[in-house]
Predict the 3D structure of the following.
Amino acid sequence: MTAAFGATSTTDDVLAGVDLTGKRVLVTGVSAGLGVETARTLVAHGAHVVGAARDLAKAEKATAPVRAAATKGRLDLVQLDLASLASVRACADALRADGRKFDLVIANAGVMATPLGHTADGFETQFGTNHLGHFVLVNRIADLIAAGGRLVNLASSGHRFADVDLDDPNFERTPYEPFVAYGRSKTANIQFAVAFDRRHRARGVRATAVHPGGIQTELARHMGPEALVQMIDSLNAQLKAEGQPPFEFKSIPQGAATSVWAGVVASADEVGARYCENCHVSTVTDGEISVMSEGVRTYALDPDRAEALWAKSEQMVGERF
């Protein structure tokens, strides 16, 4: 068993006394928020982090303090636009040409509650960016994940908004709802981890999905202040009905803690093909609970649904893995 951590644990709490010298980690979305903090703490503990970002100039500025403070570890940046499979494939090709292995891949980047839109390849924005972009990237570099390595997919309690709709992933026949689309993409992140874990566990590579918690980051850029207030008021009403205290935002170091806990500290068998939150493995629940209560839906961890998603994803991106 690993040490007990919880909702208020920070990245520094989780990695206290951990030396990551010699470890190599890929983190997507290092231009803001959780990605920057994840890179910071890993570099501070000696890891060589490769940070991927769509806007390299923004990422350079956001991570300048990380590089300035680095002593044992280091941070390099690569360009990656998850909303363009051409960019995803170019990034994967560059990493493969470099050839060095990764001990950990953290698929951190994502978007939330966007207006109806489409990626460069015609996929609904959230499903295309959050799931399909990472699906292609990770599978193309899967053999670069060293034996004993891990994949950590950032999911969300928002997966409880919706299961994946494999018959209409791009909302061509379904009325578009931003948080339903977000829920589908986050469920896909979990199911992808389940299916990836099944394919790679024999060589000691495990995959897991994590919910970082509610954090004030750029992820909510598509929600106006009024909509955010209304959502929190509604959430607090649900929590009160459940006899729980009001919602409180996590700090960014608290939000990134579960990613590094699941990727570095927890035992592989503990987290493999599971869903984690608040620095522990979550319980399965299909009851009525608020979106900020703990628990993962059965459909998100269902191996048959995960395999169906894998097949559909291959069809959509035109590649077999």
Observations:
- The mean pLDDT is 93.
- The CA atoms of residues 33 and 217 lie 6 Å apart.
- The chain has one domain: 11-317.
